[in-house]
Amino acid sequence: MAGQLLEIENVGKRFGGFAALDGINLTVAQGERVGLIGPNGSGKSTLVNCLCGTLTNETGTVQFDGYPMNGLAAHQRTHRGMARSFQLPRPFGSLTVAENLRIPLLYTVNARAHTGIKTHAHTHLNHAQLEARCAELLGLVGLANKANKLPRDLTQVEMRKIELARAMATDPKLLIADESMAGLSQSEVEDIVGLLIKLNERGITIILIEHIMRAVMSFSQRLVVLVSGKKIADGKPGDVVNNPQVIGAYLGE
Amino acid sequence: MRTPFFFIIALVVGAAVFGVALWKGGDYTFYAGYVVLQFIVLATAWNILGGYCGYVNFGSAAFFAVGAYCSVALHKFDPTKPLELCLSVWIPFTEIGFRACSTLNVSFLSPIFPLPIPALIVFGGLISGIVGLGMGYLTLRLRGAFFAIATLALAVVLQTMVVNWDYVGGSRGAYIIRPSELTFAGIKLGYIQYLFLIMMLLSVIALTLARLIERSRLGYGFATIRDDELAAEACGVPTLRLKLIATTISGMLMGMAGAPFPYYIGYLEPGTAFGLSYGVNSIAMPMIGGTTSWVGPLVGALIVATLQQWVTVTISSEWGVLIVGLLLIFFVIIAPKGVVGLVQATRRRFKTGEH
Ligand SMILES: Nc1ncnc2c1ncn2[C@@H]1O[C@H](COP(=O)(O)OP(=O)(O)O)[C@@H](O)[C@H]1O
Ligand SMILES: [Mg+2]
After folding, report:
1. pTM value?
2. Which class would CATH give A4-251?
3. Which DSSP letter does residue B116 get?
4. ipTM value of the model?
C-alpha cells in the first residue's frame, strides 16, 4: 500500500479482565495530520503505548513504514522513526534540560548512522552539531533560557514543552503528541499548534491527542474518535464532530 | 581533563603515595593500605551498576570470590601433570549413559606457570565479567528489591558451588604459599609492597574507567536508566544492552579486585571470600561518598576503609562493621547524596552567600 505510513490492524489490549483497546483498525498516510480524541479513559494513551512498544498488544499487528513492529523493543521503534511524548511528562530528573534533549540525539539520531535507518538527510552529529541542535530545539519550544536548569526547577507547562522537544529530537517520521497542551495558555497552544504544523510541512506525519477542541480542529486534517477502547468515528473533522454517535459519547461522559 | 591526562595524574598520585609509604611506613601500612585500595576498586565497580544505573547489587562478594577462586584454581594447576578431561552423559533417572575420558599433555604450558599476578587479574576479571553478563541476562528484567534479592541469591549459589569444589579446597579452604619478596630488574621488593603496588594500579584503572564512562555517551545512557527506563527507551536508549554492559564491567572489576586476594591472605576459605563485609562495604562506601560521580566511591572507600582498619586495630573488627552500619544510616537519612553532595551543597551556599 503506497503512501501508508502506519497500519494498525485489529489491535487489542486488556488490563486484567478490562478491555482497554478492542480491535482497533487505523491507517495513517505519509504526511497526514490526524487528531485523536475521546473521553478520559477511552484508551488513547494505551494505543500510543502499544504503537511505541511501551506496552505489548495481545492481538493485532502494527505495521510502520513497511515494517512489522510486533516484537520490536520500544527503542527499536524509536530508531525506525516513531516518536511519542508522554501524557505525564517523564523528564530525566538528574540531567539538565539540554542534556535531556541530547539523549535522543545521541541514542537515536546518531545510532541511525550505524544501523543505516534513514529518516531525513542525516549523518552522525559531532559535538558542536549536537549543541547546536539542542539549542535549536530549545528555541523551537521557547525554553532557550532554561538549558542548564534541572527538570525539578521547571513548571508543569515547561515540562510538557521539554517532553515534546525530546520527542522531536529523535527526528521522527511519525510524531505522536499525547495531550501536550494541557494547562497551556491560549497563545501557547497556538504556538505549539503552529510548531506542529510547521513540522508537518517538513514531511513529518503527526497524530495529535488533545482535549482542547479549538487546537484539534485547527490542526487536524482528519479526526479519529475512540470511546471505550473502540474506534467510533474516523473522517473529516467537520463531519466527525457532527456525528450523533460522537456527540452522544461526549454528552454521556 | 582528557582521559589519558587524568590517568597519568592518577598514576603519579598513586606512585607518590607508594613512595611515602615506603619511606615512612612499615609493613603494616602496606597490609592496611592494600585493603583500602581493594575497597576503592570494589566501591567503584559497584557504583557503575548501582550508582550510575540505579541497580543495587547485594552480591558483590560473589564477584570478588570468583576472582579470588580463579586465582586459587590457577595456582593449584600443575602443567607437568597431564590434564584429564572427562565427558559424562547420562539420561536422568536411568542407568543409560556413558563417560569418556582422555588425557591431555599440557607440559608445554610449564614455562608460563605459575602465572604472575597481573595475568591472574586479567583471568579473574574475564571470568567474573562473564558471570556478571550471565547474572544480567537472568535478573535484569527484575526491578528494585527483586533485583537485589536475585543478586544475593547468586552469591549463595556460587558459595555453595565453591564449598563443594574439592579442587580449590572446598569448605576446608586452600593455602597459598607466596614468596616473601620479588626481584624486578635487580630491585628487591617485599611481596606485600608488590601487592599494594598492583592494587594501586588497579584502583587507578578502575577510577579512570569510571570517570571515562561518566562523561561518555554510555554514562548518559546509564543515567537515563537510573532516572526513567520507559522514557529512556522512548528516546532510543537500548536499556537492556546498556544494563548488560554495566553488569559485565562491574562484575569484571570486582573479580579483578579479588584475584590477588589469596596471595594477600595466604589461606582462603569460602567464608572469607564470600564475606558479608564485601557486600556491605561495596554498597555503603559509594552511598557514603556519593553515587553520581567517580569521586564518591573513592571518598567513601577512603573514609570507611581507613576508619575500619583503624578501629579493627584499636578496638575490634566487630566495631568496624558497626561503624559502617551507623555511617550508612546517617547518610541514607540525612545526606542521601553522600559526602560529595554535602561538599557541593556547602560550596553552592558559599557562592550564593557572596552575591
Ligand atoms: N497500566 C494499566 N493498568 C491497568 N489499567 C490501565 C493501565 N493503563 C491504563 N489503564 C486503564 O485503561 C483505560 C484506558 O486508559 P488510557 O489509555 O490512559 O485512556 P486515555 O489516554 O484515553 O485517557 C483506563 O480505564 C485506564 O484506567
Ligand atoms: Mg491519556
Report:
1. 0.91
2. alpha beta
3. P
4. 0.92
